[in-house]
Fold:
Amino acid sequence: MTTTTPQLREDLLTPRFYTTEIAKAARTDITGQRLAFDALLGEMEADYNRDHFDRRAPLARLKELSGVEKEAYISYLLRSCVSEFSGFLLFKELARRLQQAGRTELGRLFNLMARDEARHAGFLNRALVCEGIQLDLPSLGGQRPITWFPLSWVLYSVYLSEKIGYWRYILIHRHLQAHPQNSFAPLFDFFEPWCQDENRHGDIFNMLLRCWPKLRRGWRGQLLSRFFLWSVFLTHSLTVGERGDFYKLLGMEPAAFDADVIRQTNRTARRAFPMVFDLEGPTYFALRDRLVALHTSIRALGTQPAGLGRLLRRLGLQSQLAAVVLRQLVQPMVASGEAP
Ligand SMILES: [Fe+2]
Ligand SMILES: [Fe+2]
Structure:
């Protein structure tokens, strides 16, 4: 089989590589979280999934797909692989620098999370090879720009991306268990224990957030909760909207899957964030439908002939999109203790 190296399309939805204030991370005070820390480190050391990601397991697709379907599947694999690898790079760098700073236990915890993400990325990479795609992950780490985030942002956003990852994998797994005829690749058979890794990583970030109590208090906690729930959900809705063909291929309705993932992640986030969105009313998802439609129209403009008409239409759609996105940002929230 011939293999090709894809060009990753760079836009706001492409997973990014991150780094953070490592010296500050090295000052994490785990005293108040000692019990939780030891329990989580013990779970990570136990390595429940040691034998799960079997390097010999065949990952070739079972079903012939049309060109469009194949593109949707490959795009899903690529995005997932890059995002798992982004987690690996961040955790590995933190592990290395925390160990250098003499924080051996913390470094160990990050090293074990890096181990999991390397397995996940490696597995997705193998599924890509079966599709004739060669992704050189180590050199990708050197090529792509690295975004710097303050530690508070990393704690909030990685917590959420681990928990949203958990819900994505488990909901696909549950759906395919109920509809096994739609499981067109053996990769999906691995999702259940896989999602437990992401769940544990999320629990570790919840514990780390609690090591910095000021980050969860007052206006700062409210602002961070609002901003990261909004941005992670927004990215999810746009990505699912853009890659709807992949979910249809699994027999899922993309908008319903997106809403399920958002509701469950929002509910889970009550355990870590002081506030979460109030998703009881219809407004949040009505705005979501509107912004997915606008995003689709903006993308469709790209296929039309260039000119003043297209430019004006694009500007009009973009300003409508910005207004809807901002309305979503200011939707009501509820204190975590009170959320249903
Ligand atoms: Fe992962
Ligand atoms: Fe993870």
